Amino acid sequence: MINENRIRLWRGFWQLADPKIWVASTVPMAVAAALAYSLEGTFNLYWFLWSLVGVYLIEIGKNAVNEFVDFESGVDTSITPDKRTPFSGGKKVIVDGILTLSEVKVIAAVTMILAGLVGLYVVFAREPEVLWIGIAGYAISIFYSLPPVKLCYRGFGELAVGLTFGPLVLCGTYLVQTYKISTEAVLCSLILGLLIANVLWINQFPDYEADMMGQKKNWVVRMGKKKATSVFAALFTAAFALSAILAFIAGNPFFLLPLCVFPLARRAVDVARRYYDDIPRLIEANAKTVQVYQLTGLTLIIAALLG
């Protein structure tokens, strides 16, 4: 019985942690490391790994907070089976009975405390200036869904995700590596911030009805799915436009490489516009949006190293 309980807890923890989505933070950190090596000739593996640990802990804590808040608000319990997808509906550990509500709250508290300790170690042992970036990211991750702030319930979730996984993570990692922040790092962070916000944007489509019932007033709920597809297209356009600006300002034509990913983005937009109310067919747009984010990150790394 004890072993079965441990297996259940471990399985629930990893489903809640969801390592496959850590790519959201790994991509900007890898781009920051490539930029630091290319522009400043430096890369400190020790501090890069500590940065990874701290950010991953925050991701787990954020997932846990979001999970129990969405459960208590009724959002997760309102999602019908035909609307469940691998890209939406939370981590499903409470609604599927894998973890209890109290267990998820304990995981949230422990991982956020550990993340704070790791952050303080980096601040005091490596780079004091990263403190303010760390505080911003830490606060956003907690209050993304936690009352009374509940950013994602009040229409600030998309901005919070774009800001965190773009400028905060990338520029914070670059600062830890180089003790400064460059124009190239800021522009790359904005590109990735727009694209990861777009991942959240399209992932909100399957949860539309449940979010509306649970008073989770994100911008897809506020605008309606049909109008929201126009913003979906605009975020892609802005990201690729920034790539061209980055290539010009940096004097590095390799920063045009992300434009190679444009056909994937165009396909995602076409699918979203056609099937925004047909969840099984919309999943292709969800998947392609994630691919655009990943491949853009890869091309930015290549561009930085080649440049």
Automatic annotation (TrEMBL):
Gene Ontology biological process terms from the UniProt entry: menaquinone biosynthetic process; vitamin K biosynthetic process
Keyword check for Transferase? yes
Q: Which residues form the signal peptide?
A: none
Q: In what pathway does it function? A: Quinol/quinone metabolism; menaquinone biosynthesis
Q: Which InterPro entries match?
A: UbiA_prenyltransferase, UbiA_sf, UBIAD1
Q: Which stretches are transmembrane? A: 21-39, 106-124, 130-147, 159-177, 183-203, 231-257
State the protein's name: UbiA prenyltransferase
Organism for this UniProt entry: Thermosediminibacter oceani (strain ATCC BAA-1034 / DSM 16646 / JW/IW-1228P)
Please tell me where this protein is predominantly located. membrane
Does the keyword field hold Repeat? no
Its cellular-component GO annotations read: membrane
* Gene Ontology molecular function: any one: prenyltransferase activity
Its placement in the membrane is given as:
Multi-pass membrane protein
Location relative to the cell: Membrane
Which keywords does this Swiss-Prot/TrEMBL entry list? Membrane, Menaquinone biosynthesis, Transferase, Transmembrane, Transmembrane helix
